[in-house]
Design a protein that fits this description.
mainly alpha; three-stranded antiparallel β-sheet; 6 helices
């Protein structure tokens, strides 16, 4: 704004007061809370994890991950116990070992496609019965054992060796379907029994 009449501007020029043109002082603004993790809901059931054996670095890492996941939590017991909602318990259970023991391998997950080791014994027994004669009971028993062969070999058995077993099983089943001579069926059963014998 213009100087007041009679105000000395020292150089005779008109001066503008620019103080009102500046924006608000950023230091005067309240800073946003960087902690965007929602608080615990007192209406929900909660569970606490006592972590007294953890070192501060591990506790800090856990806190960081809980924030990254957006899991509501609260630290109590001087920062050595974390409280979460029961609905998040499974996620926290899975999270803790990855921080506490990061070098340990996760447990193997059974995909349900491995052949049960018991099938080896059942195939051996079925082949043993079948080599004595292709009776209806012997054939049905063999087919029942063969139906339980999974996509992968039983634990500890080599893929190649298991593939040879499966090929011989398929050979016998093909003979069933083709109504092959009984002698061929019993001979094939004998060969399968010999292959399975060291495995059971």
């Amino acid at each position: 704004m213009l100087n007041e009449p009679g105000q000395d501007d020292h150089d005779g020029d008109l001066e503008l007061d620019t103080s009102m043109l500046d924006g608000p002082d950023p230091r005067a603004e309240a800073t946003a809370d960087s902690d965007d993790c929602p608080p615990l809901d007192d209406a929900k059931e909660q569970v606490g994890y006592e972590l007294f054996e953890w070192d501060p670095t591990e506790l800090d890492e856990l806190d960081d991950v809980l924030h990254e996941l957006g899991l509501p939590h609260e630290w109590v017991a001087d920062g050595y116990e974390v409280v979460v909602h029961v609905e998040d318990e499974a996620r926290v259970d899975a999270l803790l070992p990855t921080i506490r023991f990061p070098d340990e391998l996760p447990p193997e997950v059974d995909d349900g496609d491995d052949t049960d080791v018991q099938v080896l014994g059942d195939l051996f027994t079925a082949a043993d019965r079948l080599q004595g004669g292709a009776s209806t009971d012997a054939v049905n028993g063999f087919l029942d054992a063969a139906e339980r062969i999974g996509e992968h070999p039983p634990y500890g058995l080599d893929e190649k060796e298991w593939g040879q077993v499966v090929d011989q099983v398929d050979e016998i089943i093909d003979l069933f379907h083709a109504a092959g001579p009984a002698e061929e069926i019993t001979e094939a059963a004998y060969r399968l029994r010999r292959r399975l014998r060291p495995l059971v």
